[in-house]
Amino acid sequence: MIDKQTTLAEAIGAIPDGATAALGGNTLHRAPCAAVHEIVRQGKRGLNLVKTAGAYDVDLLCAAGCASAVSAGFVGYETPFGLAPAYRRGVETGTVEAREHVCASVIAGLRAASQGVPFMPLAGMDGSDLQAARGFARIADPYGGPSVVAIPAIAPDVAILHVQQADRSGNARIDGTRFEDVLMAQAARRVIVTAEEVVDAVEPAAVAIPGFLVNAVVEVPGGASPCSCAGVYAYDAEALKAWTAAARTPEGARAYIEDRILAVAGVGVGA
Amino acid sequence: MSEESFGPPEMMAVALARLLRNGETVFHGVASPLPMVATLLAKRLHAPDLVYLSIAGGVDASPSRLPASTVDPVLLEGARATVTLAELFDLSARGRLDVAFLSGVQIDGRGRVNMSAIGPFARPTVRLPGGAGSALLMPTAKRVLLWRAKHDPRVFVDELDFVTAAGNVERVVTPLCVFRRAEDRLVVETIHPGVSPDVVRVETGFPVEVGSKTPVTAPPTPEELAVLEELDPGRVRASEF
């Protein structure tokens, strides 16, 4: 067994500026927030974030100047906390490019990468301006059927996923909804798994992501907070409320990041 | 419970629930409290065999409490099976999803939606959250039900800034009325009790024919209200207002 357990600082340190980074989870749930905080502390720049539906993770990386593009179907905090203020500001001022997708086209792009093909046909999108705005090509069916939209492969340089349990070689268990995490692990060139707990062995039938796909494992209890982690904790409404209020202005966002993220040392076993 | 004991959240939840039929496969995504409530309400009323699907991945979940976030893991409680979001999109893509609930920051007179941007797409005045799954679901689900808890001329516009999604919209439920789509135009099917036709006309940014002869939406029955209250004592149905 290869021991891939490391620190958050080392795992995130291996991500180059300008990388395409897929983030696991969905909106307020099981986002890899501790890893995102470490990205902010390390001051990464120029990241292209990939996610079907993001919230705090995407918003924070936009606020901190780490993200320059977001490839997602939806960015927002849902009904409880509304729009993503820093993401909005980034796109409206031109520092962040909204590479808007359909959630299903993020999946299609990841599927193409995971299957080793350059694009994936996708049903639907008829009548949507997204085809033209994003340059998604419509191609003829070589066998004479109706045309389909061709979504280019999305091969993330790194997938960053937070799970409930992993072993030291990266076999990862996901309780509750898996979202696109498994697909991201298949499509990405490198995979970083943060886990609520690292154990000697994960029950094989419960493994969602086999260890041979994983490059780094970090034990981070609370690693999805302030988002939820199914079966372990709910989302932290107070923290999300505080962040979304602070993030309404660039000054507020900066102060929050300095006080609540930069001032806190990186966590993770061995850190 | 008296007949007056309902407001727009109750009227909308009940109106949406009534549109669902027994045995249908029904899906809602992120940020969808009213569809979540309506679907669970329909299952308890007239559609016990409706198949409740959500982005949380639960099949026929029976959550112990209704969450404010409609991706919450509580929507896996009591589920008979779990599926991935990719599988749910595939279901719609191959024409097997009966109903998708979707919404729009802007909705035009053809039932198309903008969830992307106000102003130019590349450098918008207001960047919106994005359409999530709507550009796939709207053209591929058999019936699309739109809902929006706000009905004013900024929502119901004559011209969208951007068409995020278009497709098989059948009805649109608002706090004022129910629109039905006929020959690619939204027409007022019923006005909710106590709403004047003038208000619907003024608050809708595209031309609508509405008047004293427009039918009134049947108010929620005592049974509908009782089941709704039992299902949603925390009034998640009101969270979008």
TrEMBL record, chain B:
EC code(s) of this entry: 2.8.3.6
Protein origin, superkingdom: Bacteria
GO MF, one annotated term: 3-oxoadipate CoA-transferase activity
Keyword Transferase found: yes
SMART domains given in the database record: CoA_trans (SM00882)
Keywords recorded for this protein, A-Z: Transferase
Name recorded for this polypeptide: 3-oxoadipate CoA-transferase subunit B
